[in-house]
Write the structure tokens for this entry.
Amino acid sequence: MATVEINELRKSFGDVETLHGISFSIPDGAFVALVGPSGCGKSTILRLVAGLEEITSGDIYIGDNIINDIEPKDRNIAMVFQNYALYPHLTVAQNMGFSLKLLKKSKVEIERAVKEAAEILGIGELLHRLPKQLSGGQRQRVAMGRAIVRQPQVFLFDEPLSNLDAKLRVQMRAELKALHRRLATTTIYVTHDQIEAMTMADIVVVMRDGNVEQVGRPLELYDKPVNQFVAGFIGSPAMGFLPATTKVGSNEMVFSDGQVLSKPTYATLDGGYIIGLRPEHIRLGGDGASFKATIEASEQTGSETMLVARLADQEITILLRERFDTPIGDAHAFVIDPTAVQVFDSKTGARLET
Amino acid sequence: MSARARVRRTNFMLDILLFVICILLLTPLILLIANGFKTPQEMLVWPPTLFPKDPTLQNFHKVFTETPLLQWMFNSFAFAILSTIAIVSTSALAGYIIGKFPFRSINIIFVLFLATAIIPFEVYMIPLYFQVKALGLLNSIGGLLVGYLVMSFGIFLIRQNVIASIPDELLEAARIDGAGELWIFWYVVLPLLRGPLAALAVLAFFQAWTAFAWPIIVTTRKASFTIEVGLANFQSAYTIDLSLLSAASAAVMVPSVLAFVLLRRNFVEGIAASGMKD
Amino acid sequence: MLRRKRFWFAIMAILPTFAIFGWVRLFPIIETLRLSMHEWNLLSKNKPFVGFQNFIELFGDNQFLDALSNTAIIAFGAMAVTIPMSLVLAAIIYHRTRSRFAGFYETAVFIPHVVSLVPAAMAWKWIFDAKLGPLNAVIVGLGGNALPWLFDPVLSVICIILLVSWQTLGYGVLIYLVGFRNLPKSVFEAAQLDGASGVQSFLYMSAPLLKPITLYVSVVTLISGFNVYAQAYVLASDTQGAPGRQVRVLVLDMLENSFQNFRVGYAAAEAVILLSIVLMLTMIQFGLLRGKGGR
């Protein structure tokens, strides 16, 4: 059983603590994404699981075994590095077969394993090339091949797609997902790109400043973010935030310019709160229950229009799934779906149940 | 044993190994210094003692008062200092010109500098000797200097530094402001070259201080020997007095080792830079 | 207009250096090449042209051949000892870079290189001394026979190789350390995850990746090995003060021919041969480096 359990993990570099008691569990065979802004500690966790850094306190389990003190090579894991870290002086075949060579497997066995992995990744023709003769995407596959050959219990990925161009990235995302479905190996995937996390992972762990903000399935994080940070981090384009006031028991939330949103809240205090609006939940409106916002910028992609508008003296982004051509500077009416709106405590950032 | 403890134990063993190796490497020098403190009689004892039973300063006293060692030290020092000055100045200027004035003739000159860089001095020192002799400079500091006025590697080092760390725009701006070329060199370029020039100075000094083949043919009179030559011929001039010889060698060795320990960074920079030549 | 001014400044500025260079480098080099084809006994004004005769004679000259073989053995021997030792030593020192003793290790290893040639040779001369030196004392103490280190033709060459290696070790370690510091760290982490132990990492990763440096250090130590002189002069000289049998090396033979045998042209020919060897070694280095794509 290749479950992974992280328990109260702490890491300090000298006097500075960078991980403040991280805990979460990974079920067997799951694809887990660790996301967060730079410096949040996600790569550190990965390296601790790999054994490349020493744990300051806390425990890591793979299956039923606590692996804190086990050497990296005995943990039965494989890692794909951000810059691939291919052995520059070895051919693709030798790169992939290196771990088996160290285990003193026979040449025949090594050849077979390498060939199998190469088939899966589509690099069978590159076996005799050196890393410097390969493109970025090819090197990435070799790095994965090197990991697959080891038949590990857990795959670790450290931002593997960040060095690829946009188009290749989209293609590799799909391939990685397919690979995971085929091999069914527990995978921990570190990225700063929340789209990657949302599209590929079974479980997403959002991190900030050495703490776990939320753990859950992608859609859970989208629909029910636990606080303002997660809400603003997940989803692209990002959620917009507007201050509004309400009273206990009221069915209305009032923006700073007086416009009113009909939304029952479970606010327990009168006062100011933060409304979270996703760009895709705002639609063009007619008269009636609409909001007026002034268009400040507009981007057409052909199938969608992205607007930057000013509502209640705040800049918000609006994503329309249609063509919309309106001169800049005009005010227009929009409809906001009250059920899709989120309310956050203005001091703690925690989301209120609505 | 946990992985962490195992790593610590390996590191400890490696430290011990390195310590032993370092001590072994330094042993010949330690013995040399120890010998300097032995009486001449103790030097002839068999099996030899490691450390003197009756340490004495008489050898050192003798070395400085009765042998020309001080004169030799002066010779070596003067020679090394003058050579350093010559090499640093010629390398700075030539390196700057070659780096920032890419005219065809300058490039040809650079290729010449480069091509001769790999030719060891020993190969062409004989004709140079005759030049020095014709000028009547044998047995003088000047004569020694002739062989060590320029260093191809020094020119190359400065050129690399000039190209890498002095932007053309800086020079253009100074020119537009009306500065003369020499002024630019002195006030703009040189201050920026302080680091590499220091490393070069250390290298040049070291090269002159430890030179052997050239000084030994250029100096034939005892008074004009450099330390190296003097020590090497010490043995024939003075009947076998190993303790004296050791004292003399130690007296020469200790200052340069001390200088190295203090100036280690510059030294290492200079020598590592020579490793990036090609 | 401006460009011409700069051109003249450049020429004027470089002229002094170039003039000196021409006098102390170019001219002697050309002179050496020229003299090698002439006969000159230092005294007479007459320097008759003799073509390649000097060279032909050299290859029949036993003393020269002796010197050549001794020098080659010393050069290659020193290289064979220095390269593996400095690589391994650098690997270990690099592994312990974070130790508080790292500075001490680097300094101590490099001190033999810094000590000037003659005092160093003096130190070793005593150690090798057949009657008084501690080396024989240790050997006898362990039950062996005292050896005539500096007298025996084979042993004295070995002594010189040991001395030269001892001096060069620090230099090799320094250059290798620079090389180690420039190796990509992630490659080693990948190897660690693949299961490589420290030793395996060294053998399969460090050593091959450091090949360009190994090449460079080899050629440098070889070239300086061929130019060996001071060590042979001091260590194995037969002046009355210190017993030892003279080991002929190229430079010694060359100087002897020039100043003792009064055959300057002949000596110049020897110098040209030394030059050819050095050039050949350098060419080989360039060739091998280029073959690897010049990393």
In short: The CA atoms of residues 53 and 91 of chain C lie 50 Å apart. The two ends of chain C are 43 Å apart (CA to CA).
